[in-house]
């Protein structure tokens, strides 16, 4: 047993906790049992996680930080950047679907964890919403929150299929997000003009005004 916090030890603790929760039940498993199974001290466990609930959502804390860092970079297309951030989160769970499914089952069985999951989902949505508002000055807040909510809902729908045992490659999510981009009229490839399009160049009427402005500015010579 050691008090050192090597990066790999977090993964070992999470895996040990999920194993114990699945075998004995969430409420019946103690922090001491998790620490012993993972080969760390009790104090190390609390430094790394804080509590049993935090172990279950440890990946999300890391992913939220990584997503925030990714969106803080410069992106030519903010709408596509939000979709790519969603795909990056999905790929993390798809890399080890069995562990993700076991964790999902535990969350479904414990009301307190289900509540925490709802809050966690909202944190992704809020992150996407704020990023779009910052990246597209003048964007109608309804367009920002609407697109953030749509991407989050699409992501969760596809991820739940994976959690329930289906084989779901990331390409399935990408296609669904492409549809979301088209619904907002902001797909990078554009689309054929329709009868109700507002023509400046050719922009769909449903495209947010801030995105029209961004594309026009991008097309103008310096």
Summarize the structure.
About 70% of the residues lie in helices and about 0% in strands.
Describe the structure.
The protein has 222 residues and is mainly alpha-helical. It has 2 domains: 8-50, Homeodomain-like (Arc Repressor Mutant, subunit A, Orthogonal Bundle), CATH 1.10.10.60; 53-189, Tetracycline Repressor, domain 2. The protein contains 11 helices and no strands. The longest helix has 25 residues, at 111-135. Residues 30-49 bind DNA. Keywords: DNA-binding, Transcription, Transcription regulation. Residues 7-67 form the HTH tetR-type domain. One of its GO terms (biological process) is negative regulation of DNA-templated transcription.
* Poorly predicted residue ranges: 1-7
The whole-number mean of residue pLDDT values reads: 88
Largest sheet properties: none
Task: Give the termini distance in whole angstroms.
Answer: 62 Å
- What is the CATH top level name of the largest domain? Mainly Alpha
Sequence of secondary-structure elements: HHHHHHHHHHH
From the helix content, strand content and strand pairing, which structural class follows? mainly alpha
Shape: elongated
Radius of gyration: 21 Å
Question: Can you tell me the CATH topology of the largest domain?
Answer: Tetracycline Repressor, domain 2
Number of domains: 2
Organism: Microbacterium proteolyticum
Protein name: AcrR family transcriptional regulator
InterPro entries: Homeodomain-like_sf, HTH-type_TetR-like_transc_reg, HTH_TetR
GO molecular function: DNA-binding transcription factor activity; transcription cis-regulatory region binding
């Amino acid at each position: 047993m050691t008090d050192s916090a090597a990066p790999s030890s977090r993964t070992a603790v999470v895996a040990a906790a999920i194993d114990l929760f699945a075998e004995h039940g969430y409420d019946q498993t103690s922090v001491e049992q998790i620490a012993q199974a993972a080969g760390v001290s009790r104090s190390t466990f609390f430094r790394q996680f804080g509590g049993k609930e935090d172990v279950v959502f440890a990946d999300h804390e890391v992913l939220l930080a990584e997503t925030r860092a990714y969106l803080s970079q410069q992106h030519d297309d903010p709408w596509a950047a939000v979709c790519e951030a969603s795909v990056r989160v999905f790929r993390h769970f798809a890399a080890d679907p069995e562990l993700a499914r076991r964790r999902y089952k535990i969350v479904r069985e414990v009301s307190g964890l289900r509540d925490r999951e709802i809050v966690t989902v909202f944190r992704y949505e809020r992150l996407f919403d704020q990023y779009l508002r910052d990246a597209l000055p003048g964007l109608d807040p309804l367009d920002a929150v609407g697109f953030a909510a749509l991407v989050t809902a699409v992501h969760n729908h596809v991820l739940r299929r994976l959690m329930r045992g289906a084989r779901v490659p990331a390409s399935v999510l990408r296609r669904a997000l492409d549809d979301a981009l088209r619904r907002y009229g902001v797909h990078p490839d554009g689309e054929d003009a329709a009868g109700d399009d507002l023509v400046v160049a050719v922009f769909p009427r449903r495209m947010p005004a801030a995105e029209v402005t961004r594309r026009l500015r991008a097309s103008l010579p310096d």
